[in-house]
Each structure stands twice: as C-alpha cells, then as structure tokens.
Amino acid sequence: MTVRIHSLWLMPAPSDEALLTGFVSDLSGRFGTPFFAPHLTLQGDTETTPAALERAITAAAGAVEAFTEPVSVVEGSDAYFRSFYARFAVSPALAKLKQVLDPEGLASFMPHVSLLYGQVEATAKAAAIAEIDARLAGRPIRFDRIGIVTSGQDVPIADWRVVTSVALRSA
Fold first, then answer.
1. Report field, pTM of the whole predicted structure over 0.70
2. Which of 27, 49, 63, 68 could form a disulfide with 116 if both were Cys (CB 3.0 to 4.6 A apart)?
3. Cα–Cα distance measured from residue 103 to residue 77, given in angstroms and rounded to the nearest whole number
C-alpha cells in the first residue's frame, strides 16, 4: 500500500491569493520554474491520515480568527522550496497555529510564502527579489483557512492537490 503524504497549508484569502498567484505565475514564466499555489506551510510531509488531519485543522481553525500579517521582507536562499519567498514575523496567530498543528517544529518555524521554487541565475534572481520586495514588503496579507494538501518533497509539484480546507474563525 502506498502511503499518501500530506502537508498543512495556511492559505491566503481570495484577493491576496490572486495577488500572490500573479507573482508566482510571473516568476514561473520568467525563470522557467514550476507553478504552484501560494501558501504558508504549517506542517509539511506528514503521513498522518487525512481524517486525523481534518480533526486537527478543524480544532485549530476554531481556535484562531482569520488574521492579517504584513510581509516582513522578500528574500531568497539556495534551498529549492525556499528559493524566493515573502517572509512573515512569527505573530501570535501564526505561533498558535504552529504550536497546535506541529509543536515539534515551532522552534525552527520561519513563516513564509514561497514565490519561486528552484535554482535560477543569481543576478536575475536578486533583481527580481528587489523588485518584488519593493512591491510587497509591509503589505498586509490576510489568511483565512487551513488546507490539507496532497504534497511533499517526493510528490511532483504538478500533482499537489488541496484535499479539504477549513475556514479560520470569523472575527
């Protein structure tokens, strides 16, 4: 039997999702890298069953109201899945979600929404980071739901799918 790998994503509200999707699409086309849905990973690569994950996200979503966080900075690294991203501070809402859903990962939690995956030419990447940082740094992004996603480092990006999502509590 094949084990299904899932991740838990904090997902931006529709208008912010559209904005971030535009950046991912532009960068994907510009650099020839994979396209993916923008998200903030709360827990990655878990073999926990979807039913148990749904119970966990339902409880977490009931404990946290939908919230807005400003982008701290847009930056990059050499890591494939963190090549180019919008970084966020570990706010009380983000810390609470991480604590409830992935307590072992709280100490190393670096909340971010990736905008590009993969290695690209350094000079062009640095220019694109500066361009998008000027547009996104300080901009508030609203997060309103948690999704269970068939995704992981060993799952082809084109095959990533949201299995279900649960809305965060309304204010």
1. yes
2. 27
3. 25
